[in-house]
Design a protein that fits this description.
The complex is a heterodimer of chains A (about 170) and B (about 400). Chain A is an alpha/beta fold and about 170 residues long. Chain A is built from 6 helices and 7 strands, in the order βααβαβαββββαα. By secondary structure, chain B is an alpha/beta fold. Chain B has a 7-stranded mixed β-sheet, with helices on both faces. Chain B has a 5-stranded parallel β-sheet with strand order 4-3-2-5-6, with helices on both faces. In chain B, strands 10-9-8-11 form a 4-stranded parallel β-sheet. The chains are: A alpha/beta (about 170), B alpha/beta (about 400).
């Protein structure tokens, strides 16, 4: 999972969790979450996105509510990674906790919807493939990287608890 | 060390911590509600053994879907109640109001605690000198199973409010001052600590507006050093004094006597302008409620504006808790609001979460004390939410137009 390639869907600055998963769907079961992915800004997104695509934001992507349905919706509809200049911190933790890479880079202004991107966690770069522009990954170190590599916080915690048992 | 660093060091069992370090910390209080709680967390906790690490340190409130408006919401409430019973939760609030306000009202959160909650406005509890951090459901499930969480130690931005607060301003105007000037992302991954003599004179429920709005600034937590006589974590010599400015990453000072009533324009909490610049803008509805804006002080300030007058557009008021109802009943505030034509509702999150109790229709413009104004927050995506203090909301309800409370006080 250290190298992923996907097609970019670019959104702007300050995309909130109400944009990613509108509050009016909160009473729906999580199994249906994919249908409402990004419904607050693009009702057609959920039907057009392809498995393996990337979502790209500007600053403060995922600001607002702690609703984990925002991350689950993106996962269920096949989004493989989220790339942004900065994240709402609860969204970031929810993403990592669900095994969805949420990658901070210094600048996303050169990425256009439809661009192919390569995300490389070993060499810690995001590359815009058709221009060759590379963007260094600024986050995902320490414990957050361990959780992501474990496939999320539940498997990570299961392993931690198993190690503790005599 | 900063106040936040001292509390995190204690929780991590260390003598000191530095900003940027990752630590494993022991949680003093884990909190959740009917939306983030049992229906989401229950199945996750079952995967981790199903047992709570310490039921005494767990708080659950039914607030989002109460009173239920649909059968689906009623099913969620029923499931939540059954889970509380099955797990013999000692701290379960069954439709008594909003989790964040109840924690402060019931004295469950105390100075020096590390509080983790499955809601973004968990940071509200920092008003009494706790480090209170919002997380998602999966994270809280692991906390319920283990009592531990990993955290990156944040640096602190200190916001000082100095001088005496004019009668036409409320804590919400102070929070909007910060958001308007510094923006909705200046505090990402940071702690925001509030200090200064203007903060010390605010009642606790108004200090809680400042810490509540920290998440809208992007912060990990908002915190205010507790008064010396405030309840604090037991059996501990933890230093809960305010942070020295020299220990902070940045310090911003505002003189409150020179500030004016503000409004945050949709769709952003940081699109902040003085009310006087927008005065005369027609509003269809007015709303007072939420963890930020349905407290005793909010209702009292609204009553001060509305006494002996009648609203021109519907003003709906959702008290945050049953305790707010009792206080405002005892001092005549509820009578004043009813006389003015206000629609009073049952305590809870009300319309702020966009689930029931007065959603906005297409194109409706509402001036409100809710937590956020992003599109769709209170109903239809094309509805417009103008965030303001309870004084400004009440003044605008009187005229049907955005109105500076100085015009009517």
């Amino acid at each position: 999972m250290d190298v992923l390639e996907g097609t970019a869907w670019v959104f702007g600055d300050h995309v909130t969790t109400d944009d990613i998963y509108p509050g009016r769907y909160l009473e729906r079961p999580l199994e249906e979450a994919g249908r409402y992915a990004m419904a607050g800004v693009d009702e057609a997104f959920a039907s057009r996105v392809q498995r393996g695509d990337f979502v790209v934001g500007g600053v403060n992507f995922g600001a607002g509510s702690s609703r984990e349905a925002a991350v689950v919706a993106l996962k269920r509809v096949g989004v493989a990674a989220v790339v942004a200049r900065s994240f709402g911190r609860i969204f970031f933790r929810n993403a990592i906790n669900n095994g969805l890479p949420a990658v901070m880079v210094p600048d996303t202004s050169q990425i256009r919807t439809g661009d192919r991107l390569r995300l490389d966690l070993t060499f810690r770069q995001v590359t815009i493939l058709h221009t060759g522009v590379t963007l260094p990954i600024l986050n995902l170190t320490g414990i957050s990287l361990e959780i992501l590599r474990a496939g999320g916080l539940l498997p990570f915690t299961e392993a931690r608890l198993a190690r503790r048992r005599p | 060390m900063t106040l936040t660093e001292r509390i995190l060091a204690r929780a991590a069992g260390r003598s000191s911590v530095r900003p940027g370090e990752e630590v494993w910390a022991s949680v003093d209080l884990a909190v959740m509600h009917d939306s983030s709680g049992p229906r989401r967390i229950g199945p996750l906790l079952d995967r981790l053994g199903g047992r709570l690490w310490d039921p005494e340190k767990v708080v659950l409130a039914i607030d989002h879907f109460w009173p239920p408006a649909t059968l689906t919401q009623a099913e969620i409430v029923t499931l939540t109640r059954a889970w509380a019973r099955d797990h013999e939760l000692p701290h379960f609030f069954d439709g008594h109001g909003v989790l964040h306000n109840l924690l402060l009202e019931a004295g469950l959160v105390r100075g020096g605690m590390l509080v983790v909650g499955a809601d973004s406005h968990t940071c509200t509890a920092g008003a009494i000198g706790a480090v209170a951090v919002g997380v998602g459901a999966t994270e809280l499930a692991t906390v319920l199973a283990t009592g531990e969480i990993w955290l990156r130690v944040p640096s602190t931005v200190l916001i000082r409010f100095e001088g005496s607060l004019p009668s036409y301003l409320a804590a919400r105007d102070l929070a909007m001052t910060v958001l308007g000037y510094l923006g909705a992302d200046f505090a990402i991954y940071r702690a925001v600590e509030y200090g200064g003599d203007a903060v010390a004179t605010l009642p606790l429920d108004e200090r809680a507006v400042l810490t509540n709005q920290a998440v809208e600034m992007g912060a990990k937590n908002g915190i205010i050093a507790p008064p010396p006589d405030a309840a604090r974590i037991q059996g501990d010599s933890l230093d809960l004094a305010p942070t020295a400015p020299g220990d902070c990453e940045a310090v911003h000072t505002f003189r409150v006597s020179d500030l004016e009533p503000l409004v945050a324009l949709p769709p952003r909490v940081d699109h902040v302008r003085p009310v006087r610049e927008l005065e005369g803008l027609r509003v269809d509805r007015a709303y007072i409620g939420s963890c930020a804006g349905g407290k005793t002080t909010d209702l009292r300030l609204a009553a001060r504006v509305l006494r002996g007058r009648r609203v021109r557009v519907p003003l709906v008021v959702t008290p945050a808790t049953q305790g707010v109802v009792r206080e405002c009943l005892a001092d005549g505030t509820l009578g004043t609001l009813a006389e003015a034509g206000v629609v009073l509702q049952a305590p809870g999150c009300g319309a702020c979460a966009g689930l029931h109790s007065g959603l906005l229709g297409p194109g409706e413009r509402c001036v409100a004390t809710v937590t956020r104004n992003n599109p769709g927050r209170m109903g239809h995506r094309s509805a417009e939410i103008y965030l303001a203090s309870p004084l400004t909301v009440a003044a605008s309800a009187l005229t049907g137009r955005l109105t500076d409370p100085r015009e009517v006080l």
